[in-house]
Amino acid sequence: MPDTTAAALPHQGETVTVSAYLATRLCQLDGHHVFGLPGDFSLSMLDEMLTVPGVEWVGCTNELNAAYAADAYARARRGVAAVLTTYGVGELSAMNGVAGSYAEDVPVVLVSGMPPSRARADGLLLHHTLADGDHDHFVRAYREVTAAGAVLRAATAVAEIDRMLLTAINECKPVYLGIPADVAVARVPAANLALPLRRSPSDPTSVQQFRDALTALLAQHPSLTVLAGPRVHRRRLEGELAALADLPGVRIATQAGAKAMLDEAHPASLGTYMGGMTRSEITRDAVDFAPLLVLAGTTLSDVLTGLFTHRFTPEDAVELGFETARIGASLFHGVRMEDAVRILHETAAERDFAPLPPLPPLTRPEVAEGPASDALTQAQLWAEIQQWMPEGVTAIADAGTALYGALGLHMSHDSDLLAQPIWSSIGYTLPATLGICLARPESRSLLFIGDGAAQLTVQELATILHRGHTPIIVLINNAGYTIERAIQSPKAAYQDITPWDWSALPSVLAPGVPSLTTTVRTRAELAEALVEARESTDRLVLIEAVLDPSDAPEMLVELGRGAARANGAPSAPTEPA
């Protein structure tokens, strides 16, 4: 993971500024792009950071979008990503994005350019403060959405930067660094930069105890079923998961936040599991009634379990976390997930299960019957996308209609699906597409987003265009919040949004930058637009798909019914009184 080639290693006795030290450490952890907006308290810090070879500034249109973009960048690179803001107004704007990183285990580093140390100590009533002399309001606020935080002093800056970054990579959680303007340019020893930061190793005794207990457990069962979650992805363990799937007697399902982590055409793949919302009864039964179930990197949140409709008992399963493994009531502290998954593979291979009967192929969306000139439906939209979708894409699906349609797609072995099913902040994915384009320039990005979500963060389309990225964007125009309509009061005024001219937007945000925009209303128009999008590799493509506001993917309809029951709403959507 560390990249010591990002910058020349220091000589003994050499010094660097605090800002340059931080930038070099970020590069060593593969965080070469720094997202954010400048402010007067952060200008000197930025000037110093950009003197470090390998650091690239990515100026975004607002701090929230910068946090979303950094989150996606860190997910794709399996490394850290930095968001740099100014104090107060900037860091508060970014907080929603950082909270999402905390909820979904993403190591984002929020760097806040703060007023000088003396001004902080004297409680001066500066701009961007609450004018009460307390400069730590926002430091305290960030404690709620980060794993650790520090306001730097020159004397301890090196140790604190390293401590924060180690916390981020060990816990896969965001951290907070407040850097006063005077500290940003203070000089500190550079010697530590010759010692790359590495995740803490597993405890050898705990590892052996876990291996022994797992070996004994596997000997009692005829097969093994694994439910793999997004934390496996965070640790870059897809290869180990695939190796485990190659063994006889093993079946693997993935959570919605980890879809396509295992090739869905693999003979051992059960596809996506979401409790009662699982599309295949074979998949649901295989997980719920598994003789031996391993929860690898899972989060058992409402959406990921189909609103808690899972029928397995988590306490009876083997559980593999970032730093802890559990078998029954026995906790094995200090067992990193990398070692736990490796041991699971090794012990399952030694167990040599008997082969299981072949699984039927996973179902795919099929083109609905009816004339191709009829109004486009959700079923037709996703079926056409399934038939067309290229291999090797990184698909990104926003919370709502887009996500619950995309979850039904069959993904090729070299594709990936990025989503935010736990935090579910609509609008996340458009800035996330910027982060993905920078993190994976070799893979074309494919964004599915609703019109309501896009209106929140669409400014970042300008950054994507001006930087020359060429994603394909399928914008679902259903005139508002269909995910909420599926839950309650579908015709209420609050479900609607103002209409935009989506096809004109790229030329407004980036005049002179080539792009391709198309509005489709029928299956025939969609099929033609998708073919053209695939061939137009040198420009951004925006396909606006106009759909009935009441139409929704089947999975979203089921979610709406369940959410309505959970929220105490009427059994069927009704009009407001």
UniProtKB/TrEMBL annotation:
Keywords: Decarboxylase, Lyase, Magnesium, Metal-binding, Thiamine pyrophosphate
Required co-factors: a metal cation; thiamine diphosphate
Membrane-crossing residue ranges in chain numbering: none
Thiamine pyrophosphate enzyme N-terminal TPP-binding domain ranges (all copies): 17-127
Similarity comment text for this entry: Belongs to the TPP enzyme family.
PROSITE patterns, per the entry: TPP_ENZYMES
Function noted in UniProt: Decarboxylates branched-chain and aromatic alpha-keto acids to aldehydes.
Thiamine pyrophosphate enzyme TPP-binding domain location: 407-544
Span of domain Thiamine pyrophosphate enzyme central: 213-329
Keyword Magnesium in annotation: yes
Designated name of the protein: Alpha-keto-acid decarboxylase
Domain of life, per lineage: Bacteria
